[in-house]
Amino acid sequence: MPVKVPASLPARSVLDAENVFLMDELRALHQDIRPLRIAILNLMPTKVATETQLLRLLGNTPLQVEVTLLHMASHDSKNTSAEHLLEHYVSFSEVRDQSFDGLIVTGAPVEQMPFEAVDYWGELTELLDWARTNVFSSLFICWGAQAALFRYYGVPKYALSEKMFGIFPHRVNARLERIVQGFDDVFYAPHSRHTETRREDILAVPELVLVAESDESGVYLVQSKDRRQVFVTGHSEYDPCTLQGEYARDLGKGLPIGVPRNYFPGDDPSLPPLVRWRGHANLLFANWLNYFVYQETPYTFGPESPEGGPS
Predict the structure, then answer these.
(1) What is the topology classification, in CATH, of domain 3-294?
(2) What's the confidence (pLDDT) of residue 30?
(3) How far is it, in rounded angstroms, from Cα 134 to Cα 102?
(4) Average pLDDT, whole number, for the chain?
């Protein structure tokens, strides 16, 4: 089933070419079903690329999804045109009186800063607190996961001696959790970060479940026991060439960066990357949408409904 997106969104032409099922507003209005309302807070500097990656995964499910793109009004984006933001994004203040079935918060290139030093931290904490009652289930990615774990549970992040960069094998710890329904015993996922979340901090919080982790890259997938929050420390949404682009970018800037591990055949960057995470990425998003959002969200969800979020 389709994702409902504006015809003018740049991601649409890319996804149309890939045969991802998208729907315009007119056609959506003629379907007698309520689409899932999903808000995406896109904190990545490469907003168009991130939109495309997330919509590709949301569009690969049997559910109709209506997407609202959010940005932080307190942050001046230097990598995305003002015209694109004005046409396709709304600020948090414009939706704070609304309710959503799901929320996705992306990563952001601010992980080496203290949380409180990020210029939009105040606005983000307002959104995270709002999500407790106005969003049924939230999915947090990379720095977004670290920020939410810190805000909700006081879980800190720690600096790494070198960037965790590449494709790493992971194991499922909690096989009966529906977020990993259909996952292989060992699955791969991309990581690109300078900080980490430690397993002992997750295990110390009774409300959290450590669902999947890696001997090499550490904590990967965490969820709250009530399934209202899912935290992913990696980037399963990444395209085949995203890490390649990041590697070339950092080399061009003269930054200390190694070849992304387990990514190029034989770790040879002259060869095309080997994609080993696409199947798990689709399962992750499909499971979240189906089991955590669609199957659980009441038809009329909101802060004043009986099923409203926790206090």
Answers:
(1) Rossmann fold (3.40.50)
(2) 45
(3) 9
(4) 87
